Amino acid sequence: MTWASIQRSGWWAWRLFALAALLSVGISLWDYAGRWYTPRLELRNFIMLGLFWGSRLAGPFLLWGLVAQALALPWSRRWRPLLAALLVSVGLWASLVEPELIRVRTTTLTGIPAGAQPVRLAVIADIHWGLFLRDHQLQRLVERLNALEVDAVLVAGDWVHEPPRDLLAGLAPLARIRAPVFGVMGNHDVQAPGPDLTEPLRAALQAHGVRLLDGQTLDWRGWQLVGLDDLWGGKPQAQIRALWPSGSAPAAPAPARLVVTHQPDTVALLPPSAAFLSVAGHTHGGQIWIPGFTPWFLRHTNTEHPWWNGLYTTPAGPLLVTPGIGTIGPPARLAVVPTIDVVELKR
Predict the structure, then answer these.
(1) Closest Cα partner for 329 from 45, 102, 50?
(2) H or E stretch including 90?
(3) Neighbours of 304 (CB within 10 A)
(4) Mean pLDDT value of segment 288-305
(5) Nearest to residue 225, comparing CAs of 187, 273, 195, 257?
(6) Which residues face 226 on adjacent strands?
(7) Which of the residues 43, 121, 123, 164 has an alpha carbon 20 to 30 A from that of 14?
(8) Percentage of the chain surpassing pLDDT 70?
(9) Would the pLDDT of 247 be above 60?
(10) Which parts of the chain span the membrane according to its record (predicted)?
(11) What SS3 state is found at 137?
(12) If you average pLDDT over residues 200-204, what whole number do you get?
């Protein structure tokens, strides 16, 4: 490749980048119309939507331009555009590749209470269908769930994020999940923050066969499934007082109760040995994992406890925090792959 051809390549790359950036703004304006809006966060979420489309349309041309610029420079001056190209490559991976992946992580717990049946559960959270997680990803999630041999699917809240207005049509793939689906609402489902879609969302989920458990108990296969409200947008404290009356002796061993809640911090409100297992989401596992910074950020924004991804021992019993499926804020994931947790409960 000659120096002249490299120059021409860079010339085209930067001009196509500028054109694609402008096109991204236009598509974002079109895409944002007809959605449920989060009050007072419209501008922030529109900017994030611009990043969503910009990474897809303009990002490759930005990378191309930086590489062409590096090749056109003497060796001693190439490091700056090459470093910028490396950072852009990481950003493109985080925005285009990793959010499209789904991994399955298996956890096994033994010693289930007498009378409870051994079961396999798929645990997911933070689908956030809407602004960033699109229809094809929701359909692929359903396909992956149906490929698993599980007895039930537990969804620990945050089903949507600024979705299209027609929730019934958009969430229709959930009706194709073969296993029974039990879940609770998350903070973004109940305006904390989020648009005023709580009741339409509840109706759409129930129409597609989802059994919502917020504040309820359900006897299932010898287990008692317990759903608790979101900590920010609901009243889990009152539900806990009703389900675990004060003064009652701690159960030993833990009862055949499975608790589903959105925020891990809710589990800290439970009495000792309250459940055989609790499951939660909310943290996204950090979503963009930067050693040192991400744990600090989580502790100052999302959770008071260091429970953000995996199985933890708590006074209330084991807690599984699943890192979620979708994204919010920056439309990207880095070193925190969307995850379906499969939990095996055995004798």
Answers:
(1) 45
(2) helix 79-92
(3) 12
(4) 94
(5) 257
(6) 217, 259
(7) 43
(8) 96
(9) no
(10) 12-33, 45-67, 79-97
(11) helix
(12) 98
Cα–Cα distance, 29 to 233 (Å, whole number): 30
Long-range contacts formed by 17-25: CB under 8 A, 24+ apart: 17/58, 17/61, 17/62, 17/64, 17/65, 20/54, 20/57, 20/58, 20/61, 21/54, 21/57, 21/58, 23/57, 23/58, 24/50, 24/53, 24/54, 24/56, 24/57, 24/58, 25/50
- Tell me which residue has tokens 């992580």: 105
Contact (CB, 8 A) for 324 and 132: no
Q: Are strands 217-220 and 223-227 parallel, antiparallel or unpaired?
A: antiparallel
> If residue 220 lies in a helix (H) or strand (E), which one and from where to where?
strand 217-220
Q: What is the mean pLDDT of residues 167-185?
A: 98
Give the list of residues 6+ apart from residue 200 with CB closer than 8 angstroms, or none.
Answer: 167
Q: How confident is the model at residue 249 (pLDDT cuts 50, 70, 90)?
A: very low
Pick the closest to residue 335 from 281, 282, 283, 287 (CA basis).
287
Q: What is the pTM of this model?
A: 0.95
CA–CA separation, 318 and 225 (whole Å): 15
Could you tell me which residues come within 8 angstroms of residue 273 by beta carbon, excluding any fewer than 6 positions away? 250, 251, 252, 253, 254, 255, 315, 316, 317
With 60 as the cut, is the pLDDT of residue 321 above it?
Answer: yes
Chain-centre distance of CA 70, in angstroms?
A: 37
